[in-house]
Specification:
Four copies of one chain form a homotetramer. Chain A is an alpha/beta fold and about 210 residues long. The first copy, chain A, contains nine helices and five strands, in the order ααβαββαβαβαααα. In chain A, helix 1 (about 5-20) packs across helix 7 and helix 2 packs across helix 7 (about 165-185). Residues about 140-150, about 155-160 and about 185-210 of chain A have low confidence and may be disordered. Chains in contact: A-B, A-C, A-D, B-C, B-D, C-D. At the A-B interface, helix 1, helix 3 and helix 7 of A face helix 1, helix 3 and helix 7 of B.
């Protein structure tokens, strides 16, 4: 079999392993954070560097489709984070300097809730976050050094498919999370309508009106 | 099983189906286009809208790591396309207006080579491209209308996992393509060193020096 | 005097000429559109290509600081335009294909209000817009061809300071517009508080609390 | 006179004052750094946060038109900085955390040359840079706190035209710098052709062929 297909199978297998490792409690708490935030007009901010950041943007786009007030850190019209807002910080290694810096300010100076999506719950990001969701895929050897520092020095992740597995896993996980949010908010459609100023998003989507 | 895991399994299954459908001839020609372009100092441009655009960027980032001169249409320092350059146009439906417009100018006015990555070889993008690579995942019902027009009108793709499958498939495909490029250029390391002004990318990567 | 200073003086003189040419009626109507839109929970969208697009983003950032719900066309979390929303389309020549395409969909398919900011009220963009504000600076010779087409072909604007004057003028104009909006909404602070769900932006800014 | 015009006149006056304060020695050294870098195939990287970052991108776009190999920190295909590359760091206050962090890694870990464009040569950025060019406009009161931290906390610059003056000044300065670079490289056209692999940029531009 050609290399391209072998690599695609490894990506498949990695997502499959990732599903096995998804911790239901971690997911439950994340879903509740997001639904509670939505009911209370809190906003969601997404941050990540490099390819993890691109996967975060793909997630932010879907949240926006669902009716969330969501922003990507660093884009033009991203407002100030407020107390109680949710910051989704994506970093396979949990050591990405820019993501860590942003998360610290959001949590310590402002009182936002930081959710870390990382392969390493014991990483600096994992330790400082209010809530950690483990998504496997980043291998131990990538963990040591910092992204910004590595980017500047040209020390990229290995270019074999393995270097790529965290990003594929996190995209599949976040798309699964969107499906879960749709189902959960569907059950509570009425509550959402009562509690939220702009019910046109999720609710209209579920009614098939979007 | 919870919705999140079900959705992740559907994504897995979709990538698996996509592998079955990968056409070896289409891939061979794409790989040769990219390697020939690289040897002859041609540049690669990537274009796509919405989430397909984000997957295109993730691919561009890896090509850059490999040593390619690659640009994303619409970013700040993207230069003019020149004759013989390669434009990778990503659109599940093959009808995205912005992607079509860019591809037409690149091909008809400048003489660049347009590669369409789409679920529909008979779409407007598929028909006008110099080379088509079929990546399954976009369902027929999404094909009718145009992205820019849909975005403006708020008619997003369905939010069920199904709406998401083209993007997961195309990310896995493009990561597989990177693995294939690495292997192929590894075989021809010496030729590349002779023909290319900046051999530090692919070659150094393969020597484990990057 | 050295070239750098001469060029800066030309930019200064160009902004000064631009002020002479600002049409008070055009500005009044734009200010009213923006304030009415804000009172009625309409959103503002900004579009522009190349350097004009960057100036548009600098304006969008300030509108966001003022409390507007504002989006940049093409960024990750930009939602669908809705009827009655305002699209600020910035193009010196008034012929930029991408800006024209976006403006047509917004106006004709959705019923948004299109405001053209251009040097040429008789350009295609000027003619199709609901409201035109003339900002001088783009010279006649730049008007003929289309941006996307020119970018693809590498026909950039001349690199002498003259090529740059529309962008400097439009930045000064839009910053002046922000000052005007602040003064105008200051006068009507109470009305704004009554009519708007989130008065914390403009009002808090004017109270010096931001 | 209406507020919009008053604000535009303040911007004009600010640019005019800025011209008075331009230090010829600082400019000479910057121009030489850029021309030497170009001759020796060094790349230019641009970094800045918020509106300063947008002005930096407008400058990067012009440098690209001139034929420079230039990148914006944070965009998709930005490669690793290498020893001897030039980092243009734009920060009115000279305290922007993200800009400082990037500059430190570039200088201390990689050996790139950092050029600070700031209102405050004694700021942290000014002190650590290899070369400082002072562009007036940022008032003392803005200097205390950090941008990322301020953005997170919602403490934006004042919205009066004064808050805006550094950005207008720096845009005019950088456009003037482009004019200067064109004139200087015109004088040395032959040398450039001999020393640079891709003379098509500056040289063709000066011949009126672009």
């Amino acid at each position: 079999m050609r290399t391209l297909k072998k690599a695609m199978f490894e990506i498949c297998k990695s997502i499959s392993d990732c599903i096995e490792n998804v911790n239901d409690e971690e997911v439950n708490r994340l879903v509740e954070l997001l639904i509670d935030g939505w009911k209370n007009n809190k906003r969601v901010f997404v941050t990540g560097a490099g390819r993890s950041g691109l996967m975060g943007r793909a997630f932010a786009m879907r949240l926006m489709h669902l009716g969330y007030e969501v922003f990507v850190v660093g884009e033009t019209i991203t407002p100030a984070v407020r107390k109680g807002d949710i910051l989704i910080a994506i970093s396979g290694s949990g050591t990405t300097k820019l993501v860590l810096e942003t998360s610290k300010i959001a949590k310590e100076e402002i009182g936002a809730k930081v959710v870390a999506i990382t392969s390493y719950p014991d990483s600096p990001l994992g330790k400082m976050a209010d809530h950690v969701v483990v998504v496997k895929g980043r291998t131990k050897s990538d963990v040591e050094s910092d992204y910004l520092s590595r980017q500047m020095r040209g020390e990229h992740s290995p270019l074999t498919p393995l270097g790529t597995l965290f990003e594929s896993n996190v995209l599949a996980f976040l798309d699964g999370l969107i499906a879960e949010l749709m189902e959960r908010t569907g059950k509570k459609e009425k509550d959402l309508e009562q509690n939220h100023a702009k019910p046109d998003g999720v609710v209209a989507a579920l009614k098939g009106e979007e």
